[in-house]
Amino acid sequence: MIEQSVWQISHLDLTLRMVLAAVLGGLIGLEREWSNHAAGFRTHILVCIGSASIMLLSIYGFSEFAAEPNVRMDPARLAAQVISGIGFLGAGAIIRNGSSISGLTTAASVWVVAAIGLSVGAGFYYASVLATFLVLVSLFLLNKWEKHLLRHRRNQEIAIKIFDKPGSLGRIATKFGEQGIQIKNVVMQSVNDLSDGDTGAGGTMELRFTLRTANADKLLRAIDDILALPDVIGLESGSLPTVRMSALSGGKSAAGKG
Measuring CA to CA, how many Å separate 131 from each of 9, 41, 49? Predict the structure, then answer.
C-alpha cells in the first residue's frame, strides 16, 4: 500500500524544481539565442518551466483524491500530452527556403527542453542535468565538428538579381572562379518588377547558383566582388545573411538579415 505522503511535496522542493527547470532550459535557450534562432532564451525557459509545472501538477496536483476509494493515480497522464503537444511550437521554428530547410535543430531543442522540464518536475534530477549537458555538447561542440567534417560536401544556394545585359552571367561566374568556388548548377529566370522601367537593355533576371566551397570566407569575398558589379541589383542566400541592394538610387546600399 503506497502511503499518501508519496503524493505530497514541500514548497521548498517545488521551488527547487521550478528554478532548476528555468536554469536548465535557459542554458539551452542561451545557445539558440546566441546563434540568432527563432526560439531563443526566453522561449526555452518558458517551455521548460511549463513542462515542469505540468509534471508537478500531474504528480501532486490531485493529492487530495489519493486516499479516495476506486481512485487510481497516474502521474504520467499529463506528461504524455506534453510530449505529443509540444510539436506545434517546434514546427513554428522550421522554415523552408527553396530546397533548404532551417530550424530543425531549434525545433528539436524545444522538444528536448520539454522533456527536461518533465524530468525536473518528476524529481529526476540526474537525468535532467545529464540531458542538458549532452544537448549543450551537441549544440556547441558537435555543431562545429559537423561543419568541419561536411565542409566539402555541402552546397550553397545563392540567388542574384541582375540587369539582363550581355556578359553579366560570365562576369559573375568569373568572380566565383577567382575564389576557387565550384558552380554546380545555374537556373535563370526573367524578372521585370522595377517600377521606373530603367532596366538597361533587356529587363532584369534572377540567377540561382548552386555552389560548392569549403571556405566560407572565400564565398563572402566573392559575394563582395559580385555586389560591386554594375549589373547586380540584389543577392540573397539561404545559408548566409541576406543582402539586398538597391541600384535605383544614386548608389548601392546593403542591409543584412540573420
Answer: 24, 17, 16
Domains and CATH numbers, the chain: 4-149 (no CATH), 155-257 (3.30.70.260)
Taking the CA of residue 253 as centre, how many other CA atoms within 13 Å lie in the half-sphere pointing to its CB? 5
> What average pLDDT score do residues 61-90 get?
72
Q: Does 155 or 18 have the greater pLDDT score?
A: 18
Angle between helices 104-121 and 125-137 (to 10 degrees): 160
Residue in 203, 168, 56 with CA at minimum distance from that of residue 119: 56
Q: What is the mean pLDDT of the chain?
A: 75
pTM for the structure as a whole: 0.54
Grid coordinates standing for 19? 528554478
